[in-house]
Amino acid sequence: MFGRMMNNFYYGKSGKGDYRKEDLPKNRWQLFWEMLRVRLSSLCRLNLMTIVAWLPLLIVLINFISTIFNVMMVTTEYHHYLTSGTVTETFTQEMANNLAAQGIVDEASISGFTVSVFFQSINSSLLWMIPAILITGPIQAGLAYVTRNWSRDEHAFIWSDFKDAVKGNWKQGLGISAISSVMPILLYTCFTFYGDMAAQNLLFMVPQMLIIILGAVWYLGCTFMYPLMVSYEVKFKTLVKNGLMLAIARLPHTVGIRLAALIPALLCAVIFWFTGTIYALLALLAYYVMIGFSMSRFIFASYTNGIFDKYINSRIEGAKINRGIATEEDEDDDDEEDQPQDGANLEA
Would you give the end-to-end CA distance of the chain in angstroms? Predict the structure, then answer.
């Protein structure tokens, strides 16, 4: 029984009609959902194969969230201890004595302690994020190649094509991830610096906002940079320039596609914010471990394929466009095939 099931999975069921050209998706929206249905299990395998590259970043983020969560819990219970004088199983007398020894004895000092730990955690997490993000560049190049093919209904081997894409694009991938890795701490440092200056002179709010805009444009440009490097032979400078130009040219759509990829994270964050249940964060972690990173790349590939056809491939002589989508040429080919050939036996 299992053998028949696997045979049907790979070769289809007997008696079922062949896949025809008119069965092709009519637009990119239909193509996205059809390819997602076909490649869903493959996206899971691809994500599990590459998750090791993302584990350091996940560990950094989990450590930051858990630190802030524990500090908030401790300070809340300590505030309750100061007002009621009672301890609990999670907040012992020893913990209260340690906090009191540090001079944390009233509401103002508790707030100062919480803020201090928060900023210390941010600084340390941003430093650890540099190597954690850096190592993901070549992996994202491999993901971009495989998901690009899948999203336009072309074949790609999960391991061999991924490996070849990493081998052929690791330098440019590492260059993009190197810039992305220092971007968070650079944005944070500049934002806080100009924020302190803006407290004295409001004119410093201008460079503060410009820093945020530049950082946002960079991350929007990364949506295009990895697909560009695996689709075209360009120098690194041209790669970055074209990625940023495409992000600006299609700014609203690129912002929308980025937010669409973050829907699971935003949903879990909202649930955690209103309910405080840790299961929301565990569900988010499970999503990214199982399929999250490859799914994001698949969404980006489905989007960038259309952008490349419109702005790049349409200007390259002989380049194929609208791969995986039914076109008028396909319908014309079908009409020609249906016409009887000269000398054919029409009574047969």
Answer: 40
